[in-house]
Protein 1
Amino acid sequence: MAAGLTITGGLREVSARLDRAAALGRAALACAEGGAEEEAVRITHELDLDQLIGEAATLLAAVSLLQRMAREHPDWAGVAAAPG
């Protein structure tokens, strides 16, 4: 993400990572349903499914922190809610 972290920008990044994770999950499921379960698990590890999910969780925590900070410091609210 760019240096100016915003709630909107953070949520956009969460969404992008979850979209990629969902696509990877669908691909792995297709492999497993086709009888290639070991290949499906290998794909999830090699393409870092767990990293995408972890990054999404971390970004969501950052967005929550920005929201709390904006509430506690109204003069920061414009910065946290600015388009990202």
Note: The chain is about 75% helix and 0% strand.
Protein 2
Amino acid sequence: MLPGCRARCFHRGCWRHSTNSTSAVIAATKELAEAVPVDRGAMVLDVGSGLGGPSRYLAATYGCHVTGIDLNSSFVEAARYLAERAGFVDQVAYECAEALCPSLR
């Protein structure tokens, strides 16, 4: 666990001031980024990145570089497409990989 990070109650806490899942995910992403903190140019690994919403949010808000990994190749393909459409191809990258993959260390 990261110092100062409240990861154990992270998902429950993100609904505190949210009325839908999108705002809850943004609130959770923001809370984690502020706890770490994420600085401009930082390298972030998004494990279980799904469609890449949090990755794009981090890149847009904090100016960091994000590598997202997911086991679902359809999600990876969709995340790449959405990143391209949003103009974040220089800041985010997505791979179909396992979090414990030796190449990610």
Note: The longest strand covers residues 65-70.
